[in-house]
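Researcher: I'm comparing several assemblies side by side, and this is the next one on my list. It has 221 residues spread over two chains. Same procedure as the others: predict the full complex and return the structure.
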Amino acid sequence: ETGVTQSPTHLIKTRGQQVTLRCSSQSGHNTVSWYQQALGQGPQFIFQYYREEENGRGNFPPRFSGLQFPNYSSELNVNALELDDSALYLCASSLTGVEQFFGPGTRLTVL
Amino acid sequence: ELKVEQNPLFLSMQEGKNYTIYCNYSTTSDRLYWYRQDPGKSLESLFVLLSNGAVKQEGRLMASLDTKARLSTLHITAAVHDLSATYFCAVDPSGSRLTFGEGTQLTVNP
């Protein structure tokens, strides 16, 4: 059974650019959540997708958007990047909603 | 707004000693999670606590949950260097999103 995977591992962007991060959920998991973890802080909930529909959103501006595909993989898109968007982005998948399984993360640096 | 507070935020301890990390949260929840994070890495699930009075143990770590007091503890017994990491508690009252504490950075010294 394959766990949660994310791509890319690292990337560097400049302020104002757009970025897309990808997540493949664990086999059979129909729920994907995205979290942002700034350096030295706990992860912050961005949003969750359940069966291709957004199922809750944290306190993030609209320039953070997402998609979930029929195979339950997901994308996180961030437009108009700001310096404060530099963080580790974590994707987590779940089947029952009781436990979330985290991927390895994508480290985004905005210069 | 749900708040999750951990203390201490930084903990330096000697090998062989015992210590407890505390996690307080502000809203009723029967679901509490403990994670470990090594530098530059993702989150590793340690414990899932789903009811009042739940106690789980794995090796030198033991976690408990008191939902009435809105308090969870992570107890470390006879610490070893390999336990050095950052430990997060997280609460999920609605079953749809985790709210994390700030983390406790643990350093175990020889």
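Model: For your comparison table: The longest strand of chain A covers residues 87-94.
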